[in-house]
Amino acid sequence: MKPEFVVAIDGPAGAGKSTAAQGVAAALEGFRYLDTGAMYRAVTAYLLRFDKKDASENEMAEAAEGLELRAGKHFVHGVDVSDALRTPGVDAEVSRVSALPRVRRVIQGKQREQRGRIVVEGRDIGSVVFPNAAVKVFLTAQLSERARRRHRQDPVQSPDEVQASIARRDAIDSSRADSPLIVPEGAHEIDTTELSIEEMVERIVSLVQAADA
Ligand code: DC
């Protein structure tokens, strides 16, 4: 079994993926939204909660096996980590955890178990997880604009700290050996620096409607 229809939205941090994916899922009847970054974040939050940030790759993969999405919440081996997904600690560690091949195999397997019509956001969705996705989109935006958006969402850190943190994550995510952040073959590239949310969502909705005709 596979999902019936996949809209894959990839791109670096702050490019607008979550906003776009949620907007597209809301605009189109029968589509669900899946945030795959949150899955890696949940595993990382669980490891931090139990002081296991220096655990072996096998132990981290075992933590990943325990991930469950229930009613919009993220549980790892029964522990609800939903409140900790966007903390600076998780921001700092998630790229390292998500670069580990065994962790990725487990999480990618859980993504492929999804059913129905889904809008999926991540880094490797159109390239590795769902290379046959009906629609592939790659969102980009200038680094300064991406940092400004993230800072506005969550002003815990200074704008400069936010920019340094996302630049660091981009570098790790793009250069890792296993499923790096790349523009997938056949993806529509959209630069969102100057686009409003409505314009961004509208463009993707048009691509989905054309593919679903
Ligand atoms: O989209 P995000 O910032 O919540 O993602 C958090 C981290 O998870 C990101 O730095 C890279 C990783 N990630 C990944 O490796 N593959 C995905 N499909 C989604 C996220």
What does this structure look like?
Helix content is 49%, strand content 17%. The protein is α/β, with parallel strands linked by helices and 213 residues long. It has a single domain, classed as Rossmann fold (3-Layer(aba) Sandwich), CATH 3.40.50. It has a 5-stranded parallel beta sheet with strand order 2-6-1-7-8. The protein has a 3-stranded antiparallel beta sheet with strand order 3-4-5. α4 runs parallel beside α8. The protein is globular. It starts with a strand and ends with a helix. The relative contact order is 0.22. The mean pLDDT is 95. The structure holds 2'-deoxycytidine-5'-monophosphate. 2'-deoxycytidine-5'-monophosphate binds next to α2, α4 and α8.
